[in-house]
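FIELD: query
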Amino acid sequence: MKYNTLINILDNFNDDVAYMSKFINPKKVINIAQERDNYQDVLTDMCRFLTKKLEDTHIVEVSYNSPFELQEILEQYANEHTLINISSGNNLSSAIAYEAMLKYKCSMVYMDVSEEKVYRINAKGIKTLDCDHVRFGVKDYIAITGGKIVTDDTVDYMTDDYYNMLFIILDHYDLWITTKDYIRNHTLSQTDVSIDIASSDYNTPIKKLFRKFMTIDCVKEIREEADRLILIFKNDDIRKYILSGIWLEHFTYNMVKEHRKVTDVKTGVRFLWDEDRAEVENELDVIAVAGTQLICISCKDTRRYNSGSLNELDIYAEQIGGTTVKKILVATKPSKGQYVDERAEKMGIKILVFDGDVDKFKTQMDEIIND
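FIELD: result
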């Protein structure tokens, strides 16, 4: 049955509302929000998003203070060609919607984001609806909450240089971990294309590894002097890839991208929480969409992550995905901080430590995405 009007009862996070609006594609959408601190922002953000997604749909914004006002609004718009979306809202608004459904012979719809199921409810009973054809990307999820992607590094990771370097890193992981940590802790100076490292017994393993990078033309020269070892790189991007944790973001991106349910994934995402406030910019290392599930990942190529790292991931992820978002912290070593694992568990954050075993990491990541 084609529905002329879709009534959405909004909450703070409304990805399910956006999905249902796109799925139903009605002639008119009525967005209703309870008047509280940020209700006008909620209405504005959803209207802005749906205006771009539903070009021929008329969108109406309405607010209410009391349950009686909500009842009056539903009575104004409800008829047999109306669908009331109760995916957001609260128990009381759902009860009021149920009363309107019975009185005006309309239907209700509920989307279970975690289970990726949609249920239509009316006087005849409950029916499951197929909405597999509706797919949102990372950009959409950020836009639903009024945000905007400023830049991302996804395209950069498609270059041969990055893939070739990552292959060498994974193929010589123990050597990589040893030399990488030494270089980071004993760099004397650096330019855009070179780093000077204090000479030591580590010279031999460093030269062994970086000669492999020379075979793919990412390292141009290894120069050994009396008290230092000088590494010359192809360009500044290659130097940053080796000296920072970008390689771990790249690896995590590849593992997530291979999952059968993942339809979109971006890495190095810098975004605005509010596209009207360009001064408030945030960043997440990897953001993915698996079905109707948003996944936010922070990558730490260190053991120096703590409660602050968890709080940052928790705040950024829930700002764009609400309480249903999946939060993962990927690290190369267990944390030295006290109670980090316990705090992560309380915050719903999964910690994944990559020890060089690619198959094990992929299995663990797949389990988290599938859960």
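FIELD: remark
The domain at 247-370 is CATH 3.40.1350.10 (Trna Endonuclease; Chain: A, domain 1).
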